[in-house]
TrEMBL record:
This is Endonuclease/exonuclease/phosphatase family metal-dependent hydrolase. Keywords: Endonuclease, Hydrolase, Nuclease, Signal. Residues 40-303 form the Endonuclease/exonuclease/phosphatase domain. The keyword Nuclease applies. It comes from the Bacteria. The lineage of its organism: Bacteria, Bacillati, Actinomycetota, Actinomycetes, Streptosporangiales. Residues 1-26 form the signal peptide. Pfam families: Exo_endo_phos. The keyword Nuclease applies. GO terms for molecular function: endonuclease activity; hydrolase activity.
Amino acid sequence: MRAVLKALLSTFFSLALLLGPVPAHADTPDPGGWPKPRFLSYNVCGAAKHCPPIYQNSVTAWRDMVVRSMDHWDADLVMLQEVCYEQWTLLRNHLAIRSGGPKYDSVWAAARTAPGCSRWDTDGDPDLRFGLVILAKGEAGTINNGSRVVYPLPETDPAGTIENRIMLCARAPITGRLVRACNTHIAPGDLGTGQVAHVAKLTREFAAMGDPVVLAGDFNVLPHDDALDPLYNHSGGRGVFQEVDENDKDFFGARCDRSEDRCRTGEATAQKPCSPEVTEPGKIDYIFLSYYWFTTVRGDSAACTSGMSDHHLLRGAAAWEH
């Protein structure tokens, strides 16, 4: 079975799907009824050839769909993966100066260059870098740039012929409390196992220092896989995290005990029709929250928006424990 899952997950190597404001299932959340703070994680697949064309063939239409999703959820912290540099600046500049909605500060880190990033060029001089973005609600300077660190993950490719896997972290206040926010994109298969272990080691150290930790990203692995044992703090895990979508019994699978309140499970973030190569739905995107600081976790995978991407946007929420 593990071999089957690995074969399945290899099709997710460069996924990304954008969700509009309306999710796919009957458990559609009313944002007003969910706790705060709130989080989004989304692999936007900014460069891969297999991803759909830019929404309505317009970079600004894509930007506006992402912004509407952020506003609908009243997101405090947003993590984006596979973001082209000019894709990020398009979003960053709009959110920094707009009126009629909250502003967001952001930091970015490059994982590699990719020819596909030329699709975001608007002046004839394309910047082909792509990587990870963290956005926090607030004016410029909300994110402590001095705390921005890019951590290389094990077994990356020095020649840059594949995506160099990294974790981007920074400290920022959300709903008045300072958190350590980390964003990553893990390689599929066995290569990713060591990368998850390294991410777990680093974030465990942050938690030991007293920081509330928010870890999000595309992990390219299913919740019950042994690779995630270093992160989860339950169900065979030995980590310090809970995950936002671990307690929705509508998505408890055969491995879950329905008498329990939580399980390593969750709604699919990659499935047809947005991920046409996927043979069966799977959750591979996560928002992990350090269990000491957060309670009442809730999560939801938003609906597929045709022509946006091949991942679903993952929404999360929690209340402060302390």
